Amino acid sequence: MNLSQTIIPKSDQLNADDLIAGPRTIRITDVRAGSSEQPVSIYFDGDSGRPYKPGKSMRRVLVEIWGADSQAYIGRRLTLFRDPDVKFGGDDVGGIRISHASDIKAEVRMALTVTRGKRKPYSVEPLPAEQPVDLQSLTDTGGSKAKEGTAALRAWFTSLAPAARAAVKPTMDEWKRIAEESDKQGGAAA
């Protein structure tokens, strides 16, 4: 059983605690204006209506790596991670940081403000190009996992990258039916 789904905080945005299980690479689908406290909402594939709302330092990183036009961000990817050393009001509260970004040719280095008058080096690495989805291989594996049962199909599906999930989604209803039949027969559906 993958416990990472059981520790997701109830919130209207992506939180640092959502990344306790590890970093996450997202593909941006939209960037919208937010409130005065959180002026940017970045929506992404699979966000379940919970956008990433970057703090000022990470907005500075985004402008440094991709420029000020947020519409240019759509379709690009970021790897986000939980940094336990992020401070708020002098306390270590943890926060979300960017480690990698698509559409940059080399590491981007900059100095970010840590506290008033104190700056610290920060860098973002290039994110490798996505590998094309091998639909035939995914279809073969998905069919095989369905025959093993619902648990195997679910575990395999949740391990897929967002692009691969989207590619196999049209077949999932059929695979679920096969998996349920397999469960009834003890894990060996034909």
Offer a concise description of the structure:
The chain has 190 residues and is an alpha+beta fold. It is built from five helices and eight strands.
Overview features:
two-stranded antiparallel ribbon, 8 strands, 190 residues, alpha+beta, 6-stranded mixed β-sheet, single chain, 5 helices
- Rg: 20 Å
Q: What is the residue-averaged pLDDT?
A: 87
Q: How much strand content do the residues show?
A: 25-35%
Low-confidence stretches: none
Share of residues in helices:
25-40%
Query: What string gives the helices and strands in order?
Result: EEHEEEEEEHHHH
**How many helix segments?**
5
| Number of E strands | 8
Helix/strand-derived category reads alpha+beta
Strand order of the largest sheet: 2-1-3-6-8-7
Globally, the shape reads: elongated
Distance between the termini: 25 Å
Taking the sheet with the most strands, its summary is: 6 strands, mixed
Account of the protein in words:
The structure is a single chain. A hairpin with a 6-residue loop joins strand 1 and strand 2. Strands 2-1-3-6-8-7 form a six-stranded mixed sheet, with helices on one face. It contains five helices and eight strands; from the N terminus they run ββαββββββαααα. The chain has 190 residues and is an alpha+beta fold. It starts with 23 loop residues before the first strand and ends in a 6-residue tail after the last helix.
Topology summary:
Blueprint: E1 24-33, E2 40-44, H1 56-66, E3 77-83, E4 87-88, E5 91-92, E6 95-101, E7 108-115, E8 118-126, H2 135-148, H3 150-159, H4 162-168, H5 172-184
Helix pairs in contact: 2-3, 2-5, 3-5
